[in-house]
Amino acid sequence: MNNNNIGKDLFVNNRKNFSERLSKNAMAVFCANEEMPRNGDQFYPYRQQSDFFYLTGIDRDCAYLILCPNHPNPAMREVLFVEPYSENKVIWRGEMIDSKEAAEISGVANVMYSDSFESVLQDIALSCETIYLNTFEYPRYECKVVTIQQRFLEEMKAKFPLHKFERSAPILNKLRMIKSQEEIEVTQQACDITSKAFRRCLETVKPDLNEYQVQAEIEYIFKYNGANGHAYYPIVAAGKNACCLHYSANNSILKDGDLILFDIGCEYKNYSSDLSRTIPINGKFTERQKECYNAVLRVMKEITKLYKVGGTIDQVNQTTYKLMEKEMIKLGLFTEDDVKNQDPAAPMYRKYLMHGMAHHIGLDVHDSVDKYEPFKAGMILTCEPGIYIREEGIGIRIENDLLITEGEPINLFEGLPIEVEEIENLMHNS
């Protein structure tokens, strides 16, 4: 059964676009993610490698894909491999995907079982000069776990030492940054579900609850509305916890008079959303909280205008830092003289704003990216200014997901409460 319900045309087109960019007499080989062990005989919930899903729509392990667009035999230009039938696996874990179903999901005509992968790989490789292999390439990616992709890369180099090897990631990164209409629609659905979860928080947040109880409300809405689950571990940060950028404990009591910061997003059909909002726990901002919140909101409204064709993430960041510096002066966090005398390598605003304002979003919440690539129509990026005043226990972040168009950007969270008055009215009337 096709659990993602995404039409095969998306994956057919993705493979076509990728294959067209390979060099002559080349093949590309991809392997699915493997299950990650937890402890004992337990595994973490399975999540497919995003590039593999992008090219196939297959959400199972023990799978491979070979693309060889110039192979003399048309049947060998696209070959998908899935796990052979196992009675024991069916008994313990449920139905498996067969070759016919895999063909229906992916649009790959030639689907074989993975016990024939090695022999087919050998045959196709000998007709090629270049082999494209795939690893996850992201500027801040750090992982001490040796993944199946890394092991597979080393095995391929040992098996075919005289072939030329190339990277698939630069091609896929470029392709994945531009979303098709179907990808946009699925991402919008993910945003809609996340919006419902935030509205639920407006109704339920009150003093003396625990952060994890609020998290439970979010998870309920996600799963009830068909999401896979969280796109990333949720941040439900009350009071001073909001000043920790990637806070994840979610185990503190909500105190009357504090703010609570949400950074949440669901994964729907493997596509992510990413939302941040900050609200008063008792339903009413203090004057100081309101000052800080509106400062962030003013900056957000201004930098949203930069999300146009030709813009860049760096342009958004630098503009934000200048605007927030002015707002911080108004908030009394430092003075104009302090700014004039500051160390350029350690600007004053960095004490209260430590992160960038934008990242691509798609199959991953921090999606494939070339940070120097100018904005193009079809890209989806976050817009997420914030301010974090640890000495006052105030942490505020506001975030929307924006679709770049030929005109003005489209806010995928359009209509979600964001103004102080909207938030207070909804919390008061819930």
Concise structural overview:
The chain has 430 residues and is of the alpha+beta class.
Labels describing this entry:
430 residues, 17 strands, 3-stranded antiparallel β-sheet, Creatine Amidinohydrolase, 2 domains, alpha+beta, Creatine Amidinohydrolase, Chain A, domain 1, 6-stranded mixed β-sheet
Layout of helices and strands, plus pairs?
Elements: H1 8-19, E1 26-31, H2 50-56, E2 64-67, E3 78-82, H3 87-93, H4 99-106, E4 110-113, H5 117-125, E5 130-133, H6 148-159, E6 164-167, H7 169-177, H8 181-204, H9 211-224, E7 229-230, E8 235-238, E9 259-264, E10 266-268, E11 271-272, E12 275-280, H10 287-304, H11 313-330, H12 336-340, E13 380-383, E14 386-389, E15 394-397, E16 400-403, E17 410-411, H13 420-429
Parallel strand pairs: 1-5, 3-4, 5-6
Antiparallel strand pairs: 1-2, 2-3, 7-10, 8-9, 9-12, 10-11, 13-16, 14-15, 16-17
